[in-house]
Amino acid sequence: MPEYKYLSGFGSHFASEDSRCPNALPEGQNSPQKCAYGLYAEQLSGSAFTAPRTENARSWLYRIRPSVVHQPFERYDKNPFLTVNWDEQHPNPNQMRWNPFDIPAASKTVDFIAGLRTVCGAGDVRGRHGLAVHVFLCNSSMTNSAFYNSDGDFLIVPQEGSLDITTEFGKMYVKPNEICVIPQGIRFSVAVDGPTRGYILEVYDGHFRLPDLGPIGANGLANQRDFLSPTAWFEDRAVQGFKMVSKYQGALFVASQNHSPFDVVAWHGNYVPYKYDLAKFMVINSVSFDHCDPSIFTVLTCPSTRYGTAIADFVIFPPRWSVQEHTFRPPYYHRNCMSEFMGLIFGRYEAKEGGFLPGGASLHSMMTPHGPDRQCFEGASNAELKPERIADGTQAFMFESSLSMAVTKWGEETCSKLDAKYYECWQALENNFKI
Ligand code: FE2
Predict the structure, then answer these.
(1) Rounded distance between C-alpha atoms, residue 240 and residue 238, angstroms
(2) What's the 221 CA to ligand 1 centre distance in angstroms?
């Protein structure tokens, strides 16, 4: 694992310069008449200029060439499975569960961009409102190519294999049980070491933030200092035909340029990529009876304009103590005005011991009932309620959205991983009524 250096904090105003070029950051202003070392100054805006200070996001990059030095964009029709077409399939309200998505065989070279597959989503990239859930299934590194998403932020959840990510801001190594966020527009390239699989939550509306803590107080859940951003790193590398791939209005485009875009010598600002180790999540739950709603496990949220309602929450179900008395401890039976997409990084999810496997997924859509299977119900209804550890060696997560998501043709048909018998896990629930 490479020993990259990181900056600690969430939403902080960072400053970083590559140690090969001391004093590359200008003092006291953003764009001097001439930058040190002959660099160009470039602002990357992640919010409206006039957004309130609490939401204002921008960074200044001091780079060898400005980003605009590239050939015209051309259509890049190499991946038909990355889509924003939510009308490919007829709506389907059924509970859905996918067996683990296949990683391409080693005989076929597939990189991160070619391996993106859209599973479900909702909204409109042009109206900047909505979300998409993708998986990535790849086995080789991006070489002499980089990617950026004009449509929104990517929250990336590696499940199998680690991601060695070079960004304009520096390098991040992200392994399973860590996540990273690459905000809209930031250029990055992904190197992998063999078979690699994971999930992506893309939001069009705005950026991820930490949830408010309310009565919890100043500490808890995901703490600010555990978020890590890269430190400046650059290469001054000539490359004939370096491919800059952009996702713009849901379609892919490629522009050729003759140099590496990772030529940022120094930067400062608060619009940055970051990663987070899920093992550092401080778990809070009931210590009396019942258990809290799953929102108590929210790591990051992308709020909508409706107060308290998220475009998407990223929620985990981490290892913890279960101590509630007089309580059915697993997740309750549920119908929700939200969409719940779940994945499993490793282990066995407590409400579904079988069938929900690492690298697979489930989707419980608007008002579609869901809950523990019979085996879980019987076990938890009769278990001795002593304090016990649950979810050790397990990390399940949920992308929960207030939007009603459509499943793509790839998700419902092409991937061939949908478990048609998922509904059967509830059919054996008996009528226990006694009067
Ligand atoms: Fe639920």
Answers:
(1) 7
(2) 20
| Residue indicated by tokens 């875009």 | 261
The helix or strand, by DSSP H or E, that contains position 182, with its residue range, turns out to be: strand 178-182
Cβ contacts of residue 319 below 8 Å, gap of 6+? 389, 390, 391, 392, 393, 394, 395
Question: 403 C-alpha vs ligand 1 centroid, how far in Å?
Answer: 14
Q: Specify the pTM.
A: 0.97
Mean of pLDDT values over 222-234: 98
Q: What is the pLDDT of residue 11?
A: 93
Domains 70-263+270-278 and 284-420 share a fold: yes
Q: How far is the CA of 334 from the centre of ligand 1 (A)?
A: 5
Q: At CA 311, angle to CA 278 and CA 216, rounded to 5?
A: 50
Neighbours of 256 (CB within 10 A): 15
Query: What's the 246 CA to ligand 1 centre distance in angstroms?
Result: 35
Q: 278 C-alpha to center of ligand 1: Å?
A: 21
Task: Measure the CA angle with vertex 6, ends 318 and 177; round to 5°.
Answer: 20
CB of 393 closer than 8 Å to CB of 319: yes
pLDDT of 78: 87
Helix (H, G, I), strand (E, B) or coil at 82: coil
CATH topology of domain 284-420: Jelly Rolls (2.60.120)
Structure tokens at 121: 């989503």
β-pairing, 145-149 vs 238-248, is parallel
70-263+270-278 to CATH, choices 3.40.640.10, 3.40.190.10, 2.60.120.10, 2.60.120.200: 2.60.120.10
Q: DSSP E strands: which ranges in 211-367?
A: 227-230, 238-248, 251-259, 264-269, 274-277, 298-303, 310-317, 320-322, 339-346, 361-364
pLDDT at 390: 93
The count of other CB atoms within 10 Å of the CB of residue 111 is 21
CA–centroid distance, residue 305 to ligand 1 (Å): 23
Distance CA 334, CA 336 (A): 6
**For the chain, what are the domain ranges?**
70-263+270-278, 284-420
Whether 351 has a pLDDT exceeding 80, the answer reads: no
Q: Please, what is the average pLDDT of the chain?
A: 96
Residues forming the active site: 291, 334, 340, 364, 370
Backbone angle region of 234, left / alpha / beta, with phi > 0 → left and psi within -120 to 50 → alpha: beta
230 φ/ψ angles, rounded to the nearest 5 degrees: -70, 165
